[in-house]
Amino acid sequence: MSTTYDFTGKVAFVTGAASGIGRTTALAFARAGAQVAIVDRSAGALEETARLITADGGQVLALTCDVTSEEDVQQAVERTFEQFGRLDAAFNNAGVEQPVKPLAELTKNHWDRVLGVSLTGVFLCARAQVRQMLRQSGGGAIVNTSSGAGVKGFPAQAAYTAAKHGVIGFTRSAALDYAADNIRVNAVCPGIIDTEMIRRFGDDRPGGREGLIADEPVGRLGKPEEIASAVLWLCSDDAAFTTGTALVVDGGQTV
Question: Which of 8, 10, 151, 235 could lock onto 141 through a cystine, CB 3.0 to 4.6 A?
Answer without folding.
Answer: 235
